Amino acid sequence: MTVVGSQVSGEVVAPETPVEEEQPQAPPKRRNNRAWLLVVPVVVSVAFTAVIPLMTVVNYSVQDVFSPTDRVFVGLEWFQAISRDPEVRAALVRTLLFSLQVLLLEIPLGVALAVVMPRRGVGVSVALVLVALPLLIPWNVVGTIWQIFARGDIGLGGWTINNVLGVNFNYTLDSTDAWITVLLMDVWHWTPLVALLAYAGLRSIPEPYFQAAQIDGASAWATFRHIQLPRLRGVLTIAILLRFMDSLMIYTEPFVVTGGGPGNATSFLSILLSKIAVGQFDVGPAAAFSLLYFLIVQVICYVFFTVLTRSGR
């Protein structure tokens, strides 16, 4: 007698395993690469607005241009001259100092403004419009506004400081007054951007968090420190990076207000580059300067972004 799967008469028969039927394989999916055609206009526009001008600047940076048809290859001579120029180093220090002061003022002010803004009702729309007004003004108009506003004879701000507060304020003659004027102008112009970003981050926090904090009897500072501020980490990283990058490249506003003066008090890298390229028309040194300027901005922003993201982790 033979029993499947057992041993009775000395003979063991293994149970039969069912034979699995082979499933038919699905035909490979055809990839549609026509979506890349949508990227072609972007590639073409970037080529004409960024790549080709950049290659032209690289070409000029290694040549001494006397005329459109007369030029001499000089290699890295202009890069060495620009990197050793004490005026360029001083402008770099001023630019970095200005950027750090901008961050120290605009980030806390923007977050504080976002916290006190209304969260519901008609006041939300009114507050958003009023806060966003400085961002709608062109950069050259901002410079013109502050150029008139800070004047001691006809400007409301300068006249008030001189006649009401009794302080001798003149941004055209005093380097400290010029620096303060440019700094306040940038704070007035760009703090609303930080406030709007922070406000969007605050509105994304679920309401039960605030309800739980209210039930626990948490103070406003405790709510901000333990609920709002941690949730703003990603938004603040973007705001800090944007403002730091923009402040490194500031040009129009200080150029309109002070022109880089008095002396070189507000002569940042961008203004100095403009003087070399447009004022002196030194094409080779200006091209080398612009490439070094580009690399400085890219490296500093990359390091800054890396530090912020790692600290967030």
Enumerate how many helices there are, as a single number. 13
User: In CATH terms, what is the fold-level topology of the largest domain?
Assistant: MetI-like fold
- What's the Cα radius of gyration? 31 Å
Low-pLDDT regions: 1-9
CATH homology group of the largest domain? MetI-like
Topology pattern, helix = H, strand = E: HEEHHHHHHHHHHHH
User: Could you tell me how far the N terminus lies from the C terminus, measured between alpha carbons in angstroms?
Assistant: 71 Å
Q: What would you say this structure looks like, in words?
A:
A hairpin with a 2-residue loop joins strand 1 and strand 2. The chain contains 13 helices and 2 strands. A two-stranded antiparallel sheet has the order 1-2. The radius of gyration is 31 Å and the shape is flat. It is mostly helical. It has 2 domains: 38-73, no CATH class; 86-312, MetI-like fold (Orthogonal Bundle), CATH 1.10.3720. Helix 3 (86-116) runs antiparallel to helix 10 and helix 12 (269-279) runs antiparallel to helix 13.
Provide a concise account of the structure shown.
The protein is an all-alpha fold. Helix content is 65%, strand content 3%.
Strand and helix layout:
Elements lengths: L39 H22 L1 E5 L2 E4 L3 H8 L1 H31 L5 H11 L6 H11 L6 H9 L10 H29 L3 H9 L4 H12 L1 H16 L3 H6 L11 H11 L3 H30 L1
Antiparallel strand pairs: 1-2
Helix pairs in contact: 1-13, 2-13, 3-7, 3-10, 7-10, 10-13, 12-13
